[in-house]
Specification:
- The structure holds two protein chains of two kinds.
- Chain A is α+β, with helices and mostly antiparallel strands.
- Chain A contains 19 helices and 17 strands.
- Chain A has three domains: 5-153, NADH:ubiquinone oxidoreductase Nqo5 subunit (Beta Polymerase, domain 2), CATH 3.30.460; 216-523, Orthogonal Bundle (Cytochrome-c3 Hydrogenase, chain B), CATH 1.10.645.10; 533-567, no CATH class.
- Helices cover 38% and strands 19% of the residues of chain A.
- In chain A, the strands form six sheets. Chain A has a five-stranded mixed sheet.
- By secondary structure, chain B is α+β, with helices and mostly antiparallel strands.
- Chain B has a domain at 35-136: Alpha-Beta Plaits.
- Chain B has helices at 2-15, 49-53, 83-87, 130-136; strands at residues 37-39, 59-64, 68-74, 93-95, 110-116.
- The longest helix of chain B has 14 residues, at 2-15.
- The chains are: A alpha+beta, B alpha+beta.
- Chains A and B meet through helix 9, strand 12 and helix 10 of A and helix 1 of B.
Chain lengths: 567, 150
């Protein structure tokens, strides 16, 4: 697993040359992780060196309040050197008075959301950020209150304020606004888009989301303990829950140096691939549904259902598996369940092939998806898109191959990529991955080694260690970062879901397309997403137009929500 | 184009009707399914291990008086992870096959158990026997072969 030792030295050398005395310390928490602590003033030079000389790919930025430990904040940029199978963790200590650091967004457009989030939640502002608007806190959240600071209690509720609005990007000259949302038309999830249109053509868009922000990270570092968080992590996503719990467990295991038994790693691989099978079948159905082709929806979901039942047999629940724990898995896969897995996979494969053969030649689908929602390779790299949208644009990255985890060093996946960059390419990538996943589950079942399923942990997890873990979710690469803390819980736990970078590519994909193509363009990212500010009613008889204020709407909805209330 | 449409039609026709007759016919979950929590009052001796590991925090433990320990289960927020069953040294807590838990009455999803305890002669507080307590205190997770199987 731990390759790329020579490359780590090269990274050290390059950064040493570029930064000189800017490097405070260099560490190797794990053989494939390089931790470089630098002077905050040299962050731009370090990022430039990583991008230009080493071809690093930006993962995510983490803001940490370390004032109780070392009296400062830390802004940590995570990079991946995919070819060298190496993570580079760039840690910048930021003084606690007037915390500020140079923004790396001008160099990496994909870092925009991460840096806005750091400003929102820990209050480290970024100098030179091209778009410093609020990202995830509610519009009525008071300025200067930072929820992920250690002195902010997890159950604190700042007072609500009336009449606040999101700060929207100004409408371009000559364009009009079409609002998409407050609910996404087909995914039934809250997401607020403003499309800038000239006639039928979309020229740009703006997004306000995070209305479903639940404060999972805050719970993780203030209420729950190491072994309770896997069940919380699992509930980050309703489809790829196992991916998040695996990713969290791996990050803690890496930080604490816990060796997971081989059998447990194989079982994790099997579950991860089963999750990919049912997620891709689900997506294929949703894509058909968005295009008005509900036959695909009905049939792929029918094919998918036995996989869900299979998950119930293996884990005890069809979706919230509760399988992962620090050090391994909780339930073993017996010979009986193994036979059951193979029995279910046969028909799933046969039927998936039948669906593939039917849809690949369907010209109606081609008309809706070919040359629509194009994401150029260069821009996909710039905004650091991950998963099938990246691979559909010819960016050959896959966490299973670049940073092998679980049993992917022995059960090797095939990298499925296409160069066209349109929606059709993403469809093909997913269909190929679906079939490859079936092969992987079979291989993992055949090669399932004997042994324990969970590591004995005899000592407390030491504090102050870091662990970075990536897992290739069906939607793309998930990243978890853990900084261990003292009282049986992480000091900081950062989760980056795959949709986080992928949504940032949406403005580029939407531009130049038609309004009618927006739902499928957005749908082709396989997104996970929120809310109305006002509504117009027109009295048909008198032709009077009345505009309701947000407060009136709120009062109406509250009235109707109460038992006995009218609508 | 036409072949695609024919193939699609064939997939639908071959599948036929797949909707299950549930709820008019029973639909039992697979063995090992993690359903509603049951507790055997005769076996529980009030060690509180279940309350200690409950990640959703739905099991509350209070000592009322010198001889009684009260265990309260608020199943409304139960996430069915099965950790309580895993750590119970006496096998008193079990996850059943029951999944039809929808109800109009919140009291249906509440259970209160009063366990008689021998109080400490010195401090007067309830205490559980030491051996299972030592087991509770183990760092990390330990599999006992069953791994959360109900």
């Amino acid at each position: 697993m731990a390759k790329g030792n020579g490359d780590a030295e090269r990274v050290e050398e390059v950064l040493g040359e570029r930064l000189g005395r800017g490097i405070i310390a260099v560490g190797r928490p794990q053989p494939d992780t390089l931790l470089v602590t630098i002077e905050p003033g040299t962050v731009l030079a370090a990022t430039q060196a990583l991008l230009d000389d080493l071809g690093a790919r930006f993962l995510v930025s983490v803001g940490t309040d370390r004032r109780p430990i070392s009296g400062d904040f830390a802004v940590t940029h995570l990079f991946s050197l995919d070819q060298s199978h190496l993570y580079v963790v760039l840690e910048c200590p930021v003084a606690s008075e007037n915390p500020e650091i140079d923004s790396i967004t001008p160099l990496i457009p994909g870092a925009a959301w991460s840096e806005r989030e750091i400003r929102d939640v820990v209050g480290v502002s970024t100098r030179g950020h091209p778009d410093p608007r609020r990202l995830l806190l509610p519009d009525d959240w008071p300025e200067g209150v930072y929820p992920l600071r250690r002195d902010f209690p997890y159950n604190e509720r700042p007072p609500a304020a009336e009449g606040t609005r999101p700060a929207w990007v100004p409408t371009p000259e000559g364009a009009s606004v079409v609002t998409l949302g407050p609910f996404f038309p087909v995914l039934e999830e809250p997401s607020n888009w403003r499309l800038f249109v000239e006639g039928e053509t979309v020229v740009g868009c703006d997004y306000r989301g995070f209305y479903n922000h639940r404060g999972v990270e805050k719970l993780g570092d203030s209420v729950m303990t190491y072994n309770e968080i896997p069940y919380l992590a699992e509930r980050i996503c309703g489809i790829c829950g196992f991916i998040h719990s695996t990713c969290y467990c791996q990050a803690v295991e890496r930080a604490a140096g816990i060796e997971v038994p081989r059998r447990a790693r194989y079982i994790r691989t099997m579950m991860l691939e089963l999750e990919r099978i049912h997620s891709h079948l689900l997506w294929l159905g949703i894509a058909g549904h968005i295009l008005g082709f509900d036959t695909v929806l009905m049939q792929t979901w029918r094919i998918r259902e036995p996989v869900m039942w299979l998950a119930e047999v293996i884990t005890g629940n069809r979706k919230s598996y509760g399988m992962n724990t620090i050090g391994g898995v909780r339930r073993d896969v017996t010979e009986v369940t193994k036979a059951r897995i193979l029995e279910v996979l046969g028909p799933v494969e046969k039927e998936s092939l039948a669906v593939r053969d039917a849809v690949v030649g369907d010209t109606t689908l081609h008309m809706r998806t070919k040359n629509v929602g194009i994401l150029e390779n260069a821009w996909a790299r710039q905004v650091c898109v991950v998963g099938p949208p990246a691979r559909g644009s010819g960016v050959r990255i896959d966490a299973r191959i670049d940073h092998p985890y679980a049993a992917y060093d022995e059960v090797v996946p095939r990298l499925c990529a296409h160069d066209e960059g349109d929606i059709w390419a993403r469809v093909l990538v997913r269909i190929e991955e679906l079939l490859d996943s079936i092969r992987l589950v079979r291989e993992a079942a055949a090669g399932l080694p004997d042994g324990p399923i969970v590591a004995e942990i005899t000592e407390e997890i030491p504090s102050g260690r870091i662990g970075v873990s990536t897992v290739e979710a069906p939607r793309g690469e998930a990243v978890h970062y853990v900084l261990t803390g003292g009282d049986n819980r992480p000091w900081r736990w950062r989760v980056r879901a795959p949709t986080y970078p992928n949504l940032q590519a949406m403005p580029a994909m939407a531009a130049g397309g038609n309004i009618a193509d927006i739902p499928i363009t957005l749908g082709s990212l396989d997104p996970c997403f929120s809310c109305t500010e006002r509504m117009e009613t027109v009295d048909v008889r008198s032709r009077n137009v009345r505009v309701y204020s947000p407060a009136e709407l709120l009062a109406m909805s509250r009235r109707s929500g109460r038992p006995g209330g009218g609508s | 184009m036409l072949t695609s449409k024919l193939r699609e039609a064939l997939i639908c026709l071959k599948a036929g009707r797949v909707t299950l007759p549930y709820p008019f016919a029973p639909h039992d979950p697979e063995p090992g399914f993690r359903g509603k929590v049951t507790i055997d009052a005769d076996l529980c001796f009030g060690c509180g291990g279940c309350a200690n590991v409950c990640e959703a925090g739905v099991i509350l433990l209070t000592d009322s008086g010198q001889h009684t320990r009260v265990l309260e289960f608020f199943w409304r927020r139960c996430t069915y992870c099965g950790r309580c069953q895993e750590v119970c040294p006496e096998g008193a807590v079990k996850l059943s096959q029951e999944f039809q838990t929808a109800t109009n009455d919140a009291a249906d999803l509440y259970l209160r158990l009063e366990v008689f305890m021998g109080p400490c002669q010195r401090c007067g507080r309830c205490f559980p026997p030491p051996t299972p307590l030592e087991r509770m205190k183990r760092t990390g997770f330990r599999a006992d072969g069953e791994g959360g199987r109900a």
